[in-house]
Amino acid sequence: MSLGVQYRYTTPVTIDTSVILAFTTPVDLDIPYRIEQNSALLTWKIDFYQWFNRLMPYLNLGLGASWNHTSQKETITDVTGLINTSSKTNTDWNYNIGVGLDFIVGTNFWLSLGYSYDHFGQLQLGQLNFTPDGGLNSGFQSVDIGNLHAHNIIFTARYLFG
Description:
Blueprint lengths: L1 E20 L5 E21 L7 E18 L3 E3 L2 E5 L2 E19 L2 E24 L5 E22 L3
Antiparallel strand pairs: 1-2, 2-3, 3-6, 4-5, 5-7, 6-7, 7-8
């Protein structure tokens, strides 16, 4: 059994999302935005038992916080005016669960192969602003994009000191 701390940073990634704005006639827009993600977790890993003195299945659990930052990549010019969003950082719970196999190569050298699912929480665009041709500025509420999550295949080589 082991306890640990995990920090993860994801460099900005550009994604397009579709947003429907309810004007007199609904407008469906693709808004390009960037996501940047940071998370910190407390992790718990337990190896269940040894098979053949070398192979051990494990379960890994983690719980922590995630900071998800979104920002619009470029202003959108539509026939009805200019549309942009403010940047938004939201904090949410972060958890992960993983399973895999540890293989003892030598007394102090282990190899691991596993799968992990990470849930980083809700993503939102900042306040959506619309500037019609007349020059007035109308603000809208933040737009929910959905949940950010990842599926990972993990290969690890570990040397144990002591």
